[in-house]
Amino acid sequence: MRYLSLPSELFLKNRKRLLDKLPSNSLIILHSNDRYPRNGDQFFPFRQQSDLFYLTGIDQEKSILMMAPDCKNEKRKEVLFLIETSEQIAIWEGHKYTKKEAQEISGIENVYWLDEFEAAMKEVLADADVVFLNSNEYIKFFSEVPDKNLRFARQFKEDYPLYKTERAAPLLAELRMIKSDEEIELLKIASEITRKGFERVLKFVEPGKYEFEVEAGIGHEFTVNRATGHGYAPIIASGGSACVLHYIENDKPCNDGDLLLMDFGAEYANYTADMSRTIPVNGKFTERQKACYNAVLCVFKDAKKLYYPGNTINKLNEQVNKMMEKELIGLGLFTEDEVKNQDAEKPLFKKYFMHGTAHFLGLDVHDVGSKDEPFKPGMVLTCEPGLYIREENIGIRIENDILITKNGPVDLMENIAVEADEIEKIMNQSF
Ligand code: GLY
Ligand code: MN
Ligand code: MN
Questions:
Q1: Domains of the chain and CATH, by start
Q2: Nearest ligand to the C-alpha of residue 401?
Q3: Most CB atoms closer than 10 Å: which of 68, 138, 140, 429?
Q4: Buried b / exposed e along 161-175 (16+ C-beta atoms within 10 A)
């Protein structure tokens, strides 16, 4: 792997926390992601299923974790099943984990090849009262492609209709929402690599550069710093493209006088950063751009104070919307009177700020956790107010990653340039 090896204690601890939540005589079966087909004989680059990684550190397709803490057979209490390599696989694909390597990474002693899974599962099923199966329960996620966990759950219910099954996802979400110190360190590394990407960009953006050249500069910095890549498709959006919230074409030239909105985050050891910065292509904000930028920056700074235990994403969104409404009046986009008379179902600010301010972050960029979940120490969320004025070709977003602690919010990206003057200064240095 490109990332430095992680201590197996992290995964041991994560499994222990999950086991503490399981009722007696439970069996839990979790699958890794597939290698998703691309075309011809190609697959997309593999990315491990986040829950399986969280519990094992195993970064290989077709892996299965089976845990049955009350099983009488010690060897079946915690088992990992892996692909058995062959000369053919070794020649064409390269290395697959040996049992010893998998033991060292995961801290799981009982590692078997996949062909032993079915029989081992049957043995454990004999004494299981309930079987926990996994699925992707992210509320905004819809996919026509069933993943391995879903295919397995369907098959399991057909083959073993008399067993009681339960959802593993809510238990895993509860655990993954609270980051351990080790996980926070990984998020800090991802954030630091992201900072390097941004600083590289600040030094070479100028009129005429293409958005994909900016993307390439960021990618270079990510790769040489051991990131696996981007945690999500990077948004490199100049001029009016910045008003398209999920713009990922990144194929236009950056024009003199335009702003450039960049939303990107390095993925390190499967943990991702999520950052947005907006800069003037020619190194100097116009007066209007600066007024708009500072309005967002002001909301960003005040919003960061709202990341305290007990608050929720839904409440925070409402609080930030109020702040943004005030700034938008200040920018002359609408008046106080117009706000007083607005349709409550269609508030005026929504025309210019149409997304939420926060989401959970971790192994996934939109990590597990609900919008009504009270913030607790150890949670990490983004803070990302934005302003999009299509008629003026202005799109601005500022986004940092914030750790909740009992002593107040900790900005994991505090050291990444964000003040307008600071950005202009770096852009205008000669290198
Ligand atoms: N990068 C995706 C987001 O900010 O939510
Ligand atoms: Mn975000
Ligand atoms: Mn983002």
A1: 8-176 (3.40.350.10), 178-427 (3.90.230.10)
A2: 2
A3: 68
A4: eeeebeebbebbbeb
